[in-house]
Amino acid sequence: MLVIHDTAIHRIGYDFYADIAERIVEGRKTLGLTQIQFAKKVKMPVSKLAQYEEVRTRYRLADLETFAQQLDTNINQLIGAEYDDVDCGECLYTVRNERYDKLWGESRNFALYFKSSSPQMAFLKAYEFSREKRFRWFESRDRAIVKLVGVPVKKTDYANKFKPIDAKADDLIELEKENQ
Fold this sequence. Notes:
The chain is an alpha+beta fold. Helices cover about 50% and strands about 15% of the residues. Strands 1, 2, 3, 4 and 5 form a five-stranded antiparallel β-sheet that branches.
């Protein structure tokens, strides 16, 4: 079950990719690998790796997972994930195109919901979804608006925010069960 949370909003665009590219280049150099050596290690053409490192193309989620593994890190560190709720595994986010918000307004803009550990991962899932469905949702320089809309309810939420049912109410529940 999800509960409505505050409305944290993140804008994700070109700078997000530039930061990832910087982390990849730094990680590759830390390992003492050239672009050619790293491309062989991740089983990718050097030209594609160069496009990623020069921020000339958007990252594929599978490629980021491979990079993270070969750089001995995890994907969340590689993408610079910022958690809206560190205690939960996945929150619920909406992802929209900022350009369409300006053209049509937020209420008419197309938005999709994604369960994700961070807004950055929600954006990557949205981009991957649009590629799989073969529709052009984001142009190369478009920014996404990723909005936190819910977090899972945790046992501690129940314990701290809800009072236990009194004995009389428990008796009524038991009576209802017996009468069914």
